[in-house]
């Protein structure tokens, strides 16, 4: 199998795990409430930690991947996902769980941004949009399949599923370390002197304003909706 194909497959698996991570907290919230004795308010507060991690990861991946490449950025992000899965599956107190969810968010934000950038760099102009759409399909598969899988098993088996996903994240991290990245794209450097100009552009600020809240709502709603359907609608 060509190294280019292996790289594409690795990226698709990585974004699939990101999709899993986006709904994991809501999917196992009843287990977390039972294990840690959480009230609804405290349990709901776990949802708000994820967007902060996603924001940091989304900002972090760009300059770091431009300077050091995608290899270590994606591998580290996958390990952060593994840390998050371990925390959700095995934390016996609230603060370690919060820290793990924060790492969860950072890893997810990095994978979300870096995989899109890598696919864009690797794709020809006529296939770039199609490949990015396919990346979104794999994200959707991860987010769609995890609640379905957990709904078909007993709550006592949730930890087993989480352990399997954790192992997958570690394996994907190793995969990101050893695969080849065949296309190196020269990045155009932006001077820090130009940054104030962006903040003077009203269209740019409007887009940032929209995306800031859209991303936060997406991170919260993905988990809240799963929790709502499972606990209140008994789906």
Provide structural commentary.
The protein is mostly helical and 235 residues long. The chain has one domain: Up-down Bundle (Growth Hormone, Chain: A). It contains 9 helices and no strands.
Order of helices and strands: HHHHHHHHH
Distance between the termini: 42 Å
Main sheet, how many strands, which sense, barrel? none
What is the number of helical segments per DSSP (H or I, 4+ residues)? 9
Overall, the morphology is: globular
Compute the average pLDDT. 83
Q: Could you tell me the radius of gyration in angstroms? A: 18 Å
**In terms of per-residue confidence, which ranges show pLDDT below 50 for 5 or more consecutive residues?**
none
CATH homologous superfamily placement: MFS general substrate transporter like domains
Give the number of DSSP strands: 0
- The total tally of domains equals 1
CATH topological fold name: Growth Hormone, Chain: A
Counting helices, strands and paired strands, the structural category is mainly alpha
CATH-level-2 architecture:
Up-down Bundle
How large a portion of the residues is in β-strands, by DSSP E? Answer: under 5%
Percent of residues in helices comes to over 70%
Which helices and strands, and how do they pair?
Elements: H1 3-27, H2 29-36, H3 40-68, H4 70-90, H5 94-122, H6 128-151, H7 158-178, H8 195-199, H9 202-231
Helix pairs in contact: 1-4, 1-5, 1-6, 1-7, 1-9, 3-4, 3-5, 3-9, 4-5, 4-7, 5-6
């Amino acid at each position: 199998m060509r190294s280019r194909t292996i790289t594409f497959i690795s990226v698709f698996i990585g974004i699939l795990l990101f999709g899993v991570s986006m709904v994991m907290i809501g999917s196992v919230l009843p287990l977390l409430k039972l294990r840690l004795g959480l009230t609804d308010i405290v349990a709901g507060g776990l949802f708000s930690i994820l967007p902060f991690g996603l924001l940091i990861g989304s900002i972090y991946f760009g300059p770091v991947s431009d300077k050091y490449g995608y290899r270590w950025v994606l591998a580290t992000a996958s390990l952060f996902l593994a840390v998050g899965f371990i925390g959700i599956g095995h934390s016996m107190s609230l603060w370690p769980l919060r820290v793990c969810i924060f790492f969860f968010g950072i890893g997810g934000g990095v994978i979300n941004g870096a995989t899109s950038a890598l696919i864009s760099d690797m794709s020809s102009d006529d296939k770039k949009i199609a490949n990015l759409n396919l990346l979104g399909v794999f994200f959707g598969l991860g987010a769609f399949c995890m609640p379905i899988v957990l709904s078909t098993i007993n709550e006592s088996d949730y930890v087993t599923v989480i352990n399997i996903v954790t192992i997958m994240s570690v394996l994907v991290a190793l995969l990101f370390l050893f695969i080849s990245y065949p296309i190196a794209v020269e990045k155009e450097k932006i001077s820090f002197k130009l940054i104030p100009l962006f903040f003077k552009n009203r269209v740019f600020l409007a887009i940032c304003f929209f995306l800031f809240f859209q991303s936060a709502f997406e991170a919260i709603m993905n988990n809240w909706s799963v929790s709502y359907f499972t606990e209140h609608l008994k789906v």
